[in-house]
Amino acid sequence: IEKRFRIISFITIVLFMTSLFVPFYSTQTFIKITFFLGMGLGIWFFLDFKMLQSGKYYFFGFLISLIFLSYTVLIKKVLNNTEVDFVDLGAFYPLMLLIIQWPTRKIYIMLFKREPEIINRYGYGSGKFADMIYTLILFFSIAGLPFIIIDALK
Fold first, then answer.
1. Strand-pair partners of 120
2. Roughly how many angstroms between the first and final C-alpha of the chain, as a whole number?
3. What distance in Å separates the CA atoms of residue 108 and residue 132, rounded to the nearest whole number?
4. Which domain holds residue 37?
5. Which of 25, 42, 44, 48 is the most exposed place for a label (fewest CB within 10 A)?
């Protein structure tokens, strides 16, 4: 987990640092990069559920998400773009997943006395219906909750 976290974190930091130069070049490019970078972070956290079982890596992921959201808000202020849009949506992906994942995982462990697994590409995690529900909740936190929050902020 540590090696995978370091590699993906390094890639994330490189992409993040590269995107620092984009907002002043093209606002549309910045919006697209921010959206996909946020989506990529959210998908990373979603798929690497084993990483999030560690308090240390959960904290680092949460820190990365907060920095990413803060960066997005700051750049929007610099660009004088006050309208809520896709930039915000992309920035919310990783943070929403982590905010929902922690209490959902704790409740799951309390109810079922084991760690949850997400549905993997070969079928269900452990074949349990509860794992499917857990996965759907996490997926909704990425795929649906940011849209609801953005609509509420408009």
1. 123
2. 39
3. 12
4. 2-153
5. 25
The count of structural domains within the chain is 1
Tell me the pLDDT of the chain (154 aa) as tens digits: 888 888 888 888 888 788 777 766 676 777 778 888 888 898 888 888 888 899 999 999 999 999 888 887 777 777 666 565 655 677 888 988 999 999 999 999 999 998 888 776 555 555 678 888 888 898 888 878 877 877 776 6
Helix axes 55-78, 86-112, angle to 10 degrees: 160
Rounded to two decimals, what is the model's pTM? 0.80
Tell me the C-alpha distance between 39 and 42, whole Å.
5
How far apart are the C-alpha atoms of 154 and 102, rounded to whole Å? 27
Cα–Cα dist 154/152, whole Å = 6
Q: What is the per-residue DSSP string for 56-125?
A: HHHHHHHHHHHHHHHHHHHHHHHTT--S--HHHHHHHHHHHHHHHHHHHHHHHHHHHSS-----BTTB-S
Name residues whose C-beta falls within 8 Å of residue 45's C-beta, 6 or more positions apart in sequence.
51, 52, 61, 65, 94, 97, 98, 101
